[in-house]
Design goal:
mainly beta; five-stranded antiparallel beta sheet; Neuraminidase; 658 residues; Methylamine Dehydrogenase, Chain H; 2 domains; 55 strands
């Protein structure tokens, strides 16, 4: 029993996360009497994805004005809301649900797969009262909490069941809220001079940034979260900024003597420029150092209500009172798409994965479009092969095998493609394929202690490689030539990485440091091993030569970076990290440069592994109560679930191609 707990504790420790409580999408402002609300996904490095079919015949309510590359845009859904005046759309970080808000106060939750809606808040105001409501909408806590405001000046957070989590009052109508990129702070302002900052971890107000100016019509945090910016309209147009570390004002300026209304504002991805949608019709790019307009996007004949960046920052969408939705190439300043509608377009948003453009047409409903084929990268080849993983599907952890989804067959999410390889009363974990795909190494406590074993790919011919009755071993992995296996062991009274012959003989310690070293991965040329280490006080990723010399640190964060896996060509390393508040899958260059986040989910993503061709990654996603195996293309596209098991599934490994 003691050894069983030891193995489970060791495995659980590898999964331990220090995820921040709040994470989600940034939201920006609304402006009366238009009653629009911007919910903007901050630009990231996620790509725009491919659509596969030519454009269908368009309904008469929407007309594509310009042709060229935009003519292949595909509408995939158009839920009707004939009485609506939508002013908010925001996607949950996991991209599975979307939330919309209306000037009436109605809030709807949409399931992306079916576009079926659930009413979260019923309408609170009739058409005659709509000028009394300029509320905002945001998602926090990884999409688990919906934040709304009302005409009484309250900012209210509720979980998905409608249970109130917090309520704050500004004492007057709220026109704008903004969520910091790390999800820690919520700023709220409106008709009065009051601008408050809420700490979403403690649910307490931590700052009051009130000034002599009032009518705060737009708020936004910079992409790095270090600056809060507010736009005021009375007694004149004024922009103010604050340092979020101290909440001290850092700038106050007006870039024009003309009186106008701010509708929406965004930072460019590099944080140097403010993008402004206003009653001046043109979308303006304001340099925050010189306070000069450096670019204008011209074409709207009436005021744009709301703007949104695509996740990679290359496109800007604008929704306008002139009944058009425009899609702009940010670099050239040209409109690549104009969609003409029969009513005003009140809100627009990109899905967080960059695959969809969604906007709301007043008195019609929501339109969902797949992005232009010529603006997207080439399709990713379909996944194939077999994936081994550890699962407690039969009650305790065993090694299972699943077929990767093939394009022609799709994903058998019912689990019909799963096959159990081990079956005993102990725990079998951490499968790792031999380079030729003929055998699997794994860790098991079947003989009373945590040891390394191997077996044939069909589960037969089980062989025990290590025998350390007083210590534990974990996380085996094969060398590229199949001659060696690296693994973790505490046999030196400290967790270090060891190397042994593939038959278990002649083991030697590779690392020797008081900090924990574990979860190793061989470079494809066999010259280096990447591993996770706590030697500098925090879990980071290191590489070391196979003779133990020249250890080098590749990552440096205040949170955990772990479970490195070298790509088949040796140019990249996949890993999971908490650096953005929630465990997500990342890929970086083999020297540690250019880290790219691939996932953005409410669940905890960990233990990535590459497909043999380097085109796909497989990983675990979930919690300590339930987790499933997912696949994602190495460019961040085509996220898909391997199976719906309702169990805990961990440490997947893709079988090498013979």
């Amino acid at each position: 029993m003691e050894k069983t707990m030891s193995l489970f504790f060791r495995f659980a420790l590898a999964l331990f996360v220090t995820a921040m409580l709040i994470s989600g999408c940034a939201s920006t402002a609304t402006q009366p009497p238009i009653s629009t609300t911007t919910i903007s996904i901050l630009p990231t490095s996620m790509p725009i994805l491919t659509t596969e079919t030519p454009a269908p015949e368009q309904p008469p309510s929407t007309t594509i004005i310009n042709s060229g590359n935009a003519s292949q845009l595909k509408k995939i859904a158009s839920p009707d809301l004939p009485e609506s005046k939508l002013n908010s759309i925001v996607f949950a970080p996991d991209n599975r649900t979307m939330v919309s808000g209306d000037t009436s106060g109605e809030v709807l939750v949409w399931e992306r797969e079916t576009w079926k809606k659930t009413t979260f808040l019923a309408p609170q105001y009739d058409a005659a009262e709509q000028d009394a409501f300029f509320g905002t909408l945001a998602l926090i806590s990884n999409g688990k909490i919906i934040v709304t405001t009302n005409s009484a000046g309250e900012v209210i957070g509720q979980d998905r069941d409608g249970k109130e989590v917090f309520t704050f009052s500004l004492g007057d109508r709220v026109y704008s809220t903004a969520l910091s990129p790390d999800g820690k702070y919520l700023a709220a302002g409106g008709l009065s001079k009051k601008l408050i900052i809420l700490d979403l971890e403690t649910k307490q107000q931590i700052a009051d940034l009130s000034s002599d100016y009032e009518y705060i019509s737009a708020l936004v945090f910079s992409p790095d979260g270090k600056t809060l910016l507010a736009c005021y309209e009375r007694p004149g147009n004024m922009i103010k900024t604050w340092d979020t570390a101290t909440w001290k004002e850092t700038a106050s300026f007006s870039h024009t003597s003309e009186r106008f209304d701010y509708h929406d504002i965004l930072f460019t991805p590099d944080g140097t420029t403010l993008v402004i949608a206003s009653t001046r019709k043109d979308i303006e790019f304001l340099d925050l150092e010189t306070h000069q307009v450096v670019k204008k996007l011209q074409g709207h004949t009436r005021a744009p209500y709301q703007i949104a960046f695509s996740p990679d920052g290359s496109l800007l969408a604008s929704a306008s009172d002139d009944m058009t939705l425009r899609l702009w190439d940010v670099q050239t300043g040209k409109a690549v798409l104009v969609l003409k509608n029969q009513h005003e377009v009140g809100t627009v948003a990109f899905s967080a994965d960059g695959t969809l453009l969604v906007f709301g047409v007043w008195e019609e409903g929501i339109q969902v479009w797949a992005l232009n084929e010529e603006l997207a990268p080439a399709p990713v080849a379909s996944a194939s092969g077999e994936i081994a993983f550890a699962s407690d599907l039969d009650g305790d952890f065993e090694i299972w095998l699943a077929l990767a989804p093939h394009a022609s067959a799709g994903v058998n999410t019912d689990g019909s493609h799963l096959r159990q390889l081990t079956d005993n009363d102990a725990m079998d974990l951490s499968p790792a394929w031999s380079p030729d795909g003929s055998r699997l190494a794994f860790v098991s406590n079947r003989d009373g202690n945590d040891e390394i074993y191997t077996m044939s790919a069909d589960g037969s011919d089980v062989r025990r490689l290590t025998e350390t009755p007083d210590f534990s071993e974990s996380f085996p992995t094969w060398s590229p030539d199949g001659q060696f296996i690296s693994f973790d062991s505490d046999r030196g009274n400290n967790w270090d990485v060891y190397i042994a012959n593939s038959d278990g003989s002649s083991s030697r310690r590779l690392t020797e440091h008081p900090g924990e070293d574990w979860i190793s991965s061989w470079s494809p040329d066999g010259s280096q091993i990447a591993f996770e280490s706590k030697r500098d006080g925090n879990y980071e990723i290191y590489v070391v030569n196979v003779d133990g010399t020249n250890p080098q640190r590749l990552t440096q964060n205040s949170v955990q970076d772990g479970a490195p896996k070298w790509s088949p060509d040796g140019s990249k390393i996949a890993f999971f990290s908490h650096r953005d508040g929630n465990p997500e899958i990342y890929v970086m260059n083999a020297d540690g440069s250019n880290p790219l986040r691939l996932t953005n989910q409410a669940s905890e993503d960990s233990f990535p592994a590459w497909s043999p061709d380097g085109v796909w990654l497989v990983f675990s996603s979930g919690t300590n109560q339930q987790s499933e195996i997912y696949l994602i293309a190495a460019d961040g596209s085509q996220l898909q679930k391997l199976a719906d098991t309702g169990a805990q599934n961990w440490t997947p490994a893709w079988r090498p191609t013979p």
